[in-house]
Predict the structure of Glycosyl hydrolase family 28-related protein.
Amino acid sequence: MRLSVILEYIRGVLYREAALRPLLVAIVFGLLLAQSVAAASAPSLVVAAGDSGPASKMQANYICDGLDDQAEIQAALTALPGGGTVVLSEGTFNCSGSIVPASGTTLLGQGPEKTNLSFSRNGMLNISRESITLDGFHIMGSGYVNASTNTTLDLSQWLGVLTIYASGTRVHNVTGTADSSIQAVFLLLHNPNVYAPILEDVEFVNCRAVDTGTYGFLHNAWGTENTVIRNVRYENCAAINCGRYGQFNPWVTGFDFAELNDIEGLRAMNCLAEGNLESGFHFEWDPEKRDCVLINCTSRNNGQKPHPKDYLVGDPDFFGSGFYLPGGQVSLINCLAEGNSAFGFFIVNPKGMLLYNCAENGTGRISSGGSSPGPISYCVLQSLPVSENPSLVMEHCRSLDSNGWALFVCGTKNALIRNFTMTDPAGIDGIGAVLGCPSGKFLVNSTIDAGLSNSTVDLVASGDRPQTLVYIVNNRNVTYSGRVISDAALPVLVEGDRVGVDLSGLRVLAVNKTA
């Protein structure tokens, strides 16, 4: 248990138990004294960059010359007796090889604007030991090459400028970039040849990947055992323009939380994904996603990649999304998707998924070119049977000024949509939102030829741009309520199968008769 938690508990008891106050005060004093002694006794060594100032060099235990600076940094880390801190001065450290901190050590810079680690010749920051802290610097990687031979396999290009293999890592106040010769800036990788246990308990705070030719933050796993990555936390992190000006591959995203790994216990708070080649926040299709929660996250202007020809909604070779969520137990709370090219929120095969108080604005605002069936603000598809009930809960979510459909729900069962608001969608083919899926009419990649079933939909829809604001088609056992406010020619259109469909709670009102 952390000392801060213990102290907070004791403070609470102090207020409630007057008789225990003298004893508890003594305990608090002892804990604080122990903390200060530990901090004072933790060894530290200083490494100065070749271009740092005279004052920094005078205080340094090691002074770099601007060539192979990883040697001095590694020497300082190795010299620490069982933990401690290596302090990096201001300036640029040119690293032509890798840095490998020992367990329990801290690498501390002067802030990402002042301390820069520039990696070349396949060098990287390699975290293969537990309980390492990185804080306060900028990393940059470029020029990675495949150095494989007939007898050795080089995987440097499939790693990250910062590659984390081991549990208990803390990364605070680190900004990074890379060209398109390496797979990621920040990479969490389970590699059983480096670290066999489950990779877990990793924390990113105030970290940024900016203007990269590759993925910003990527989770991945090699091998077949312990491939779940668990209990990863992101707070106030950003992935900006990843893959926009050069691409490691055609699918570069800002945050990719599940590539070949399963993911469990993910928390992302107050994070930003903006201007990325493909999705802002992304999960791949096959991995298991359990207990993943994103809170107050914003995904803006993602999907810079052109649409492929003959694209079908739901094809796995194009994302273009603010939030790309193919299956699993993922919850989004107070999240915003704004101006993404194809989808604000793309959801497939939800298994107890939650969207609460989420908002979409202007999906389709940026043009990604190519052939497209049109942007969709909230796209919910089911291509496999799902047993969870409810499979999806959307509550207090809203769409504003979508450049296509505000909502599209196809092949979906056991959905609970409450207090959904859609305002002034442009629509596609004269329709503002589609609830259901007409057979063979829409370009949708779905193995289940069905509409919407066993669900509840409560909405408030307004706008006059499309001829039909809400299109209900092929529904079974669905209850509708709410209001449709429009002077459009046909505000609500119901077609196809409608067994067990209850529309008695859905009112259609003209704009001047909203009372």
Notes: Helices lie at 3-16, 21-41, 54-59, 70-79.
